[in-house]
Design brief:
Structural class: alpha+beta
Strand order of the largest sheet: 4-5-6-7
CATH topology of the largest domain: Helix Hairpins
CATH architecture of the largest domain: Orthogonal Bundle
Number of helices: 8
Helix content: 55-70%
Order of helices and strands: HHHHHHEEHHEEEEEE
Radius of gyration: 44 Å
Shape: elongated
Distance between the termini: 83 Å
Oligomer: single chain
CATH class of the largest domain: Mainly Alpha
């Protein structure tokens, strides 16, 4: 309307020829009342959409955490099955060695029987060849005088003793052969039993790895789906925020705050890591310590690994290592820690040897309620009735240190309560 009025006035001035024609500046847009109302409604609608999308993004983060927990559980189960397989294979190998030893004993007993038979046969042949009558009267009745009678009596007694010894040797060899046969049969049966157990353990391990492999594939597919959804939601969120200058300014301030917090956290982590690492290096492989000094050493060793990447199956008492041979698409040359591997390294500094799998680490020490947590206690996580799938270390001030999941690194974070077991494990 205003533009039309201005154009009309300019036209009248030009037509009337009054003064010099001066170019008038173009006025800014002047939206009508109805347009302003529609704009206000659009800002309100977009603000509501921003809230809904932000809430949906938070739900997606929770679902991603659930997927990571499911994958960790399947991998822990696979690793536990691998431990059982190794133990079964060792038992089968030991049973095989015992069976081999029993077969050797049986062969030795058979050789002893053959030797005893040979001695008895030699005795019989010698008696036959010399034409001796070694019956109760044969040698004695052929005596030619008293002295010959005495000599023949002594010879007859020697022959009887030799024959008895040969027969006794044969009988003992037969008994030893029977005992060796029984031992060999028992050892062979034990070897077969151990081999069957090893075969079952191998089948269980293969099934566990197959389940973990399938879980990893499903996890990757679902994460891809969630990521695509996340990208779409982020696009809509960005579009809603870009539609209003106030919302854009709010997002800018939020991003600046988030970057500042991340930088401060990174600096704090770096300082904590360097401080802890300096204490770890200063102590070296010193003598074992106890009490608060042991707790400090354990926490320092864990803190010295801040920022080290998560690798499934990685880590031992000496530090980060390559993970379990790859069945899930991860590079074989990655070096780092998984949750239980970080605990192995940390507690090894205080001379504590923990089992490898988190569910076994839960039973490695004294149980204490979460309400009585102290720095250095291990906390554990599980979902519903499933086995334990994650372990972390409480470091005090409501925080814990953990190797969380693939794609993340060792970090200090607030003690999570979702899935937290009510009892912690204390080994110091």
């Amino acid at each position: 309307m205003r533009r039309a009025v201005v154009a009309l006035l300019v036209l009248i001035a030009l037509l009337s020829g009054v003064g010099t024609a001066v170019a008038q500046p173009t006025p800014p847009p002047n939206p009508g009342d109805d347009e302003l109302e529609r704009s206000a409604q659009e800002v309100t609608r977009r603000a509501g959409e921003v809230g809904r999308l932000t809430s949906e993004l938070a739900d997606l983060d929770i679902r991603t955490d659930d997927l990571a927990a499911e994958l960790a559980l399947s991998r822990e189960s696979a690793e536990a099955a691998l431990e059982l397989l190794n133990a079964a294979q060792e038992a089968a190998a030991e049973a095989g060695r015992q069976a081999d030893a029993a077969r050797i004993a049986t062969q030795a007993a058979s050789a002893a029987i053959e030797s005893a038979r040979d001695r008895l046969d030699e005795f019989v042949v010698a008696t036959y060849q010399q034409g001796l009558d070694n019956g109760p009267l044969g040698l004695l009745t052929a005596a030619t005088g008293p002295e010959d009678l005495v000599a023949r009596a002594e010879f007859n007694d020697a022959i009887a003793r030799s024959q008895l010894a040969a027969q006794d040797g044969l009988e003992r060899a037969r008994v030893e052969k029977a005992n060796a046969d029984a031992g060999a049969r028992a050892a062979l049966q034990a070897a077969r039993d151990r081999e069957a157990e090893a075969a079952q353990a191998e089948a269980d391990a293969e099934a566990a790895f197959a389940a973990a492999d399938q879980a990893a594939r499903e996890h990757a597919a679902r994460l891809a789906e969630l990521d695509a959804r996340r990208v779409e939601l982020q696009r809509r969120l960005d579009a809603a925020e870009a539609g209003d200058a106030g919302l854009r300014a709010q997002r800018t301030r939020y991003n600046e705050w988030r970057a500042r917090v991340a930088a401060e956290q990174a600096a704090a982590d770096r300082a904590a890591r360097e401080e802890a690492n300096s204490r770890v290096l200063a102590l070296g492989d010193g003598p074992p310590v106890r009490g608060s000094a042991a707790v400090r050493r354990v926490i320092d060793r864990a803190m010295s690994q801040l920022g080290v990447q998560y690798v499934w199956g990685g880590g031992n008492g000496r530090g980060p290592s390559t993970g379990i041979p790859d069945r899930f698409g991860s590079p074989l040359n990655r070096i780092g820690f998984d949750c239980s591997g970080l605990m192995l390294y940390a507690f090894n500094g205080a001379g504590v040897r923990l089992p490898r799998v988190s569910r076994n680490q839960y039973n490695a020490g004294r149980k204490v309620p979460i309400s009585d947590l102290r720095p250095g206690d291990m906390v554990f996580y599980k979902r519903g009735g499933a086995p334990i799938h994650h372990v972390a270390m409480y470091v005090g001030d409501g925080k814990m240190i953990e190797a969380p999941y693939t794609g993340a690194s060792v970090r200090v974070t607030k003690l999570r309560t979702r899935g937290l077991l009510p009892m912690a494990t204390r080994v110091l």
